[in-house]
Design a protein that fits this description.
The protein has about 325 residues and is α+β, with helices and mostly antiparallel strands. The chain has a domain at about 80-225 and about 240-275: Rossmann fold, CATH 3.40.50.410. The protein has eight helices and 18 strands. It has helices at about 95-100, 105, 135-145, 155-170, 200-210, 245-250, 265-275, 300-305; strands at about 35-45, 60-65, 65, 70-75, 80-85, 115-120, 125-130, 175, 180, 185-190, 195-200, 215-220, 240, 255, 275-280, 290-295, 310, 315. The strands form five sheets. A six-stranded mixed beta sheet has the order 7-6-5-10-12-14, with helices on both faces. A four-stranded antiparallel beta sheet has the order 4-15-1-17. The protein is globular.
C-alpha cells in the first residue's frame, strides 16, 4: 500500500492489546520512499492459485488515467501484517471452530517476520492479541479467542472493520518500541456477512481502510449473501446491509465462500502472502484529494496468462 495519509479523523478510540513477541526481526523488507505510492496486486489463475514470478514490466499502472513508471515490484520478500477479525456471534461458532481448526497449518504459509493480530467482534470488537511474530503461539490462541470474550450478540461488521483498521494504523509499524516497515497490511474477516450497518456506510469504511493502507479480505460462511445495490434497508435510509464483497473489491482484497472448509483459511493466508507490491513516485496532486488508480497486466504478460485475475485497490488520498 502507499505511504499516504487521509484527511479524515479516526472515529474510534484506541484498542488495548497484548504486547507483540520479543523476537528480533532481521528479515529484509521491501522499501519505498515516503513520497511513493505503493499498490498491492493479487494475481491468480481462475482457481485462485497465486501466479508467481512476475516483474515490474509485466504490469501497467495508471494514476488518474496517466501511465506511471513502476519503480519496484516485490512478491515474497515484504513483511505481512495481518489482523484476523473473527465474527463470534452465536451463528458463527460452528463455522469458526471448523475453519480455524488447522490454524497452525494455515499460518505456516507465513514467514518468520510476518505478524498476526487477533480481534473478535459481534456487537462490539475487542483485541485478543496484539501484533505478534510468534506464529505458533498465535495459532494456539485462535481457538481460545473464539470463546473468550463477551462482545454481545448482534453483529456490527462495518464498525468492527474500522476498529481493525485503527489497530493496524496505530500498531502495525512498531515492534519492541521501534519503528518498522509493516509491509503489506491486510484484514482477514471471517463472517456470514449478515448484519445491518447503522450510520456507518461502506464509503466511510473504505476511507478508513485507505487511511490505514489496508486491504479487506473475507472468508464468508453460510449462505454467503451478497446484498443488492439498494442504498438502504426497509424504511431506514441510514441503514445498509453488510457487504464485505464491496469493501474487498475497493481495497484490493479477496473473498472466499466456505461452508466449513478448513482449507479456506490457509488459501486466503496464501493469497495475502503472495501478492505483489508495486511502487511508483506519487504524482503532484492537491493534498488530501482522492486519486483513482488502475492496475492491469501488460500485453505480453496477458498473452502468457490470458485467464489471470487481478485485484488491486481503486485509489488513494494524496499526501498532506
Amino acid at each position: 500500500m502507499c505511504f499516504i495519509a487521509l484527511l479524515i479523523l479516526s472515529v474510534l478510540a484506541p484498542v488495548p492489546g497484548r504486547a507483540a513477541s520479543g523476537q528480533e526481526d532481521t528479515t529484509p523488507t521491501f522499501k519505498a520512499g515516503v513520497s511513493d505510492v505503493r499498490v498491492e496486486v493479487q494475481v491468480t489463475d481462475p482457481s485462485g492459485e497465486p501466479i508467481r514470478g512476475l516483474v515490474a514490466s509485466d504490469f501497467i499502472v495508471t494514476d488518474e488515467d496517466r501511465d506511471q513508471q513502476i519503480l519496484s515490484c516485490d512478491q515474497a520478500n515484504e513483511r505481512a501484517s495481518i489482523v484476523l477479525l473473527m465474527d463470534v456471534s452465536g451463528s458463527m461458532q460452528t463455522y469458526l471452530q471448523s475453519i480455524t481448526h488447522n490454524a497452525e497449518q494455515a499460518l505456516h504459509v507465513l514467514r518468520p517476520a510476518d505478524r498476526v493480530a487477533i480481534m473478535v467482534f459481534a456487537r462490539t470488537a475487542e483485541t485478543d492479541q496484539d501484533f505478534s511474530d510468534n506464529l505458533a503461539e498465535t495459532a494456539r490462541e485462535i481457538p481460545k479467542a473464539i470463546v473468550g470474550h463477551d462482545v454481545g450478540y448482534t453483529t456490527n461488521i462495518n464498525s468492527a472493520i474500522v476498529v481493525a483498521a485503527d489497530l493496524i494504523e496505530r500498531r502495525a509499524d512498531t515492534m519492541n518500541n521501534h519503528a518498522i516497515d509493516p509491509g503489506r497490511r491486510a484484514i482477514l474477516i471471517i463472517t456470514d456477512n449478515l448484519a445491518i450497518n447503522h450510520l456507518l456506510p461502506d464509503d466511510v469504511v473504505i476511507r478508513e481502510l485507505y487511511r490505514a493502507e489496508t486491504s479487506l479480505n473475507a472468508i464468508v460462511v453460510g449462505r454467503a449473501i451478497r446484498p443488492g445495490s439498494q442504498p438502504g434497508t426497509g424504511h431506514d435510509a441510514e441503514a445498509t446491509p453488510a457487504n464485505v464483497y464491496h469493501l474487498a473489491e475497493e481495497t484490493g482484497g479477496d473473498v472466499i465462500h466456505a461452508e466449513s472448509s478448513e482449507e479456506a483459511f490457509r488459501t486466503m493466508i496464501e493469497r495475502i502472502r503472495f501478492r505483489y507490491t508495486l511502487a511508483y513516485h506519487a504524482p503532484r496532486a492537491v493534498p488530501g484529494s482522492f486519486r483513482r488508480i488502475h492496475v492491469e497486466l501488460s500485453p505480453d504478460a496477458r498473452r502468457r496468462f490470458p485467464t489471470a485475475v487481478l485485484r488491486a485497490r481503486t485509489g488513494y488520498y494524496a499526501a498532506t
